[in-house]
Amino acid sequence: MSIFNFFRAAPRASAVQAKERLQIVMAHERAGRSGPDYLPMLQQELLAVIAKYVNIDENKVEVKLDRGGDCSTLEVNIELPAREQAKAAAATKPGDKPAGNDDAATKRPAGGAVGNAGGKKRI
Amino acid sequence: MSKIIVMTSGKGGVGKTTSSAAFATGLALRGFKTVVIDFDVGLRNLDLVMGCERRVVFDFINVINGEAKLNQALIKDKRIENLYILPTSQTRDKDALTREGVEKVLNELSKEFDYILCDSPAGIERGALMSLYFADHAIIVTNPEVSSVRDSDRILGVLNSRSRRAEQGLEPVTQQLLLTRYDPERVEKGEMLRVDDVLEILAIPLLGVIPESQAVLRASNVGMPVILDEASNAGLAYSDAVGRFLGEDIEHRFVTPQKKGLFSRLLRRSA
């Protein structure tokens, strides 16, 4: 053991890390276990409605349920294509968009409730 | 009315069979007529740990299939009065366990026995589900280690949703934690989860802490339940756990490092 080790902060005990990791992963798993199983259906139906009006990429949709002590939030994040690209996409085949539209797309911040699905940006 | 206990864990290799053998023996030692059933169809091992492997003629699956009478399959322990073993099949697979078949055997056993202890296989498939389905009490065997704790939590979820008591809306299966292979010295060094950490995460009452002990391997080598090794910490810890299960108030031992005196250092006696 070098004398320098004496001054170095003691490494965090591995047991502490074990506990923290367990607490996080298990909180997640428990929520999933008691969570409603309608989420996949809900996601599909929401998508169908939105897709009627907006051209969206199915891979850029995220539905999340956070169960808190007092209230739970349902969070729906949908990445909308930019206006020009939406037009272009509408003209061509849906879903057949050019690459690199991420920068122009409107990404909704997290933390919204159900009504979050509509973008601020007019399309 | 007999009580059905399941020894379960989710994860394999944490000490379910060792604990089943010890616990069943402990209950019998206290005068309760006890049978321990091996549910690990295809991977039978309870017979070896109990030291009755050469006396197996018929098994649990034979009884389920009506190929043998229950009395023919039950093996009476040669050391302990009141203790019986129901071994499982080594050649069939878990599909041989039907809910009706298991129920029929358990019903028949419950006429005769005070305690029926079901030794669950690892996993959450058929064998494990059948072993816990009819349980009144569950003993969750856990090692102070991340994968074991996570799997124990998973099995608790299964108990709360897929046991008979859960399905029929009866009073839930009681759940108690048996923390095995605990090494107080590694805990002191911060290398192992503490009892309190595991309890906080799993949030079930503590039945016992079994210290890591060389006596466990020695006992299984010779086919003797480790609880009969009264010189070992593990044996004493199991004995305490049985007492607590029966409602006695017994303080937990072997949870802090033992101070080694010069004499024991010289002798290097293993626990």
From TrEMBL, chain A:
What InterPro entries would the database entry show? MinE, MinE_sf
State the family it belongs to.
Belongs to the MinE family.
Q: What does this protein do?
A: Prevents the cell division inhibition by proteins MinC and MinD at internal division sites while permitting inhibition at polar sites. This ensures cell division at the proper site by restricting the formation of a division septum at the midpoint of the long axis of the cell.
- Name the domain of life: Bacteria
**Gene Ontology annotations of biological process type:** cell division
Indicate what this protein is called per its UniProt record.
Cell division topological specificity factor
Where is there biased composition of kind Basic and acidic residues? 94-106
Locate the region Disordered. 85-123
- Would I find Cell membrane among this entry's keywords? no
Provenance organism: Azospirillum endophyticum
Q: Which keywords are on file for this protein?
A: Cell cycle, Cell division
| Regions of compositional bias (Gly residues) in chain numbering | 112-123
Provide the gene name from the record: minE
TrEMBL record, chain B:
What range(s) does the AAA domain occupy? Answer: 2-159
Organism of provenance: Azospirillum endophyticum
InterPro entries the record matches: AAA_dom, MinD, MinD_FleN, P-loop_NTPase, ParA/MinD_ATPase
Q: Which domain of life is it from?
A: Bacteria
Any single Pfam family the record assigns to this protein: AAA_31
Which controlled-vocabulary keywords does the entry list?
A: ATP-binding, Cell cycle, Cell division, Nucleotide-binding, Septation
User: Which gene name does the record give?
Assistant: minD
Which taxonomic lineage does the organism of this UniProt entry have? Answer: Bacteria, Pseudomonadati, Pseudomonadota, Alphaproteobacteria, Rhodospirillales
Name the SUPFAM superfamilies on file: P-loop containing nucleoside triphosphate hydrolases
Name the job this protein performs.
Answer: ATPase required for the correct placement of the division site. Cell division inhibitors MinC and MinD act in concert to form an inhibitor capable of blocking formation of the polar Z ring septums. Rapidly oscillates between the poles of the cell to destabilize FtsZ filaments that have formed before they mature into polar Z rings.
The protein, known as: Septum site-determining protein MinD
Its assembly, as annotated, is:
Interacts with MinC and FtsZ.
What family does the database annotate? Belongs to the ParA family. MinD subfamily.
